[in-house]
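Structure ticket #2291
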Amino acid sequence: MIKQILQGMVVGIANIIPGVSGGTMMVAMGLYDRLIHAITHLKSEFKDSMKLLIPIFAGAGIAIVALSRLFEFLLATYPIPTNFAFCGLIAGSLPFIFKKVKGHKVTVSKIIPFLIFFGVVILMALLGETGGASADVSFGFVNLLKLFGVGIIAAATMVVPGVSGSMMLMLLGYYDTILKVINDFVDALVKFDMGGLMTGVGILAPFGIGVVIGIFLIAKIIEFIFSKAEIHAYYGIIGLILASPIAILLKTDWSGISVLMVGIGVVTFALGWFTASKLGGE
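Resolution: structure written out below.
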């Protein structure tokens, strides 16, 4: 269970950082197939599904709540080593993913999804250069519906490997706002500020409900795709994953580059690779 909580924390951290895909981290650690199965078979295999889902989601929640400020600081202060660490995590996942297609002949029909999804990730990185304006989350029926819809979209993109849910929030203009609301909610909880807690719940509840519904919807779609064309789907995922480090490096702030920063980046890349090798697999 401790390993699964740690895996969930890696997924949670990935979902905080624009350009990094939580779905990619799931694949990297050998979680993806099992997680999709647990979500789509929750009713029929409730006990077994919850054994996997509870520690994973608990770990992700802990990471998002406890580490959002830390990674805001790391990305602002040490963007090169921080992003190199995530590139290492992704690169370290490749041996596990290539095993999924080992023994299957490479064909044009498999290369096509690879190229399409490789291009999707690069395009999203190029389009996602701006943080966007802060969204209006003042209490109101229309804003509640918007938060619900944004939650569905964010969840769908969080689950798809290679696509960054936080980047999608950024493009929609909700990234900075949601992150600030989470941090303010934690502050209010520490101070027992009931007004602050109610404000946070009013924003996070519709967003959270949207996230849960979005995860279940996209999981059903992904399960259907895998049941019809599993190997082709994995070629698409490989395209997404190979493009992810490029997308991360495109999003990296290189203004502070130096020999020292690059050297530290090489070390953090190696640590990321090592972590992927230990957390990966069944």
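Closing remark: The mean pLDDT is 82.
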